Amino acid sequence: MRLYSLLFRLPSVFIALACVTATALACPFCDAPSLTLTEQLSASQAAVLVQWAGGEEADREKSFSGTTSYEIIEVVEDESNKLEKGKTIKLDRYRASKKGDLFLLLGTLTDDRIEWSSPLEVTETSYNYMKQSPPQDAPTQQRLAYFMKFLEYPDALIATDAYSEFANAPYKDIVPLRNIMPREKLREWLKDPEGAPSRATRTGLFGLLLGLSGNEDDAEFMKAKILEESDTFRLGIDGVMSGYLVLTGDEGLDVIDEHKLRNREVPFSETFAAMQALRFMWTYGDNRISPDRLRKSMRILLDRPTLADLVIVDLARWDDWGVMDKLMELYDDEEYQVPSIKRAIVRFMLIAEKNNETSAEGEVADHVKQASANLEKLRKEDPKTVKSAERYFFD
Question: 298-308, pLDDT tens digit by residue?
Fold first, then answer.
């Protein structure tokens, strides 16, 4: 899931769904997780290390796509009981290579034959990395401790796979590893995001990990990184902001409030990144910053008509019923005469009305009464919008 696509103003209902989906990921700021090598191996019924042995090139005149032969060097998995070292596997389609080049073949059993996937080029190093990886059913923390050592390994296949392991892992399993995270290396990688292929796309994860493992000096480094002026979209800066808040708490949030939420001179993408950091802390922050303090920061963005509908969705999820009077004022404000904002306000009231909280005396909570009164008023003054909002409202 690409959270950055929200910059293109998807409807609020899809925004809400995106936020729910994000909670299932270890890193909402990472590229979409892909199948790791160990996941692919675990799902295979046959796996062999092979070397390129030759082949027959394609002949277009004869509509012949060619063939390629591979010699088995080592059998990793074989549920067919037919694979042996030294045997040759011939695949359709000619794939140019050099004799001795290594590949990993993964296959599944269909009837009495093996269906092989496309060969994955490997080196002795990447193959040994895969072989030594903890099995898929090993405890997640044990697995991540192994993959952490390879996050920026020179072999691109290894580095990408190690990154994917973190992108796939539950955040709760990453947190206990904070004491063994390569803090100084993380800082160097963030300092030089273009220093290695694909490093820029991993900035969000590295920022989050530095926030978990960092010290006061790292907090100052992250603050400077966040406050760098930029006219372009900064990939992963939302992860850096989230790591900064994990590390600094309320003090860091004061900085984000001043420079990213209240400051209208910064690009929209920077403000949205700060909004993502608030969402992250709400979901994963474990009260590092109190719910009331997070609500206070999110409310700042109600003053931005371009973000208001998204903010209202979050405030409803966060049970911020104290903002009702403000929302009713916005409903009639000239700058907020946008259908998506009006529908978001109506849905906020619908959610508040369905909230079943009661007072200590067993009476209906004040915010439920207020929401009902607000809805009655809006039904009289703007029945078309209320009907539209109710049409897609799911209790």
Answer: 999 999 999 99
Q: Which domain holds residue 331?
A: 309-395
Q: Among residues 104, 128, 152, which one ends one of the domains? A: 128
Torsion over CA of 29, 32, 34 and 38, rounded to 10 degrees? 20
Residues 148 and 162 sit within 8 Å (Cβ to Cβ): yes
- Give the dihedral of Cα atoms 40, 46, 52, 53; nearest 10 deg: -170
The H-or-E segment that residue 168 falls in is helix 156-168
Number of structural domains (the chain) is 2
Q: Which helix (H) or strand (E) holds 64?
A: none
From 97, 128, 159, give the residue that closes a domain: 128
End-to-end CA distance of the chain: 25
Give the three-class secondary structure for 113: strand
Q: Are 211 and 249 in contact, with CB atoms under 8 Å apart? A: no
> What local confidence, expressed as pLDDT, does residue 23 receive?
40
Convert the pLDDT of each residue in 102-124 to its tens digit: 999 999 998 888 999 999 999 99
Q: How much of the chain is helix, strand and coil, in % rounded to 5?
A: 55, 10, 30
| H or E segment to which residue 91 belongs | strand 88-92
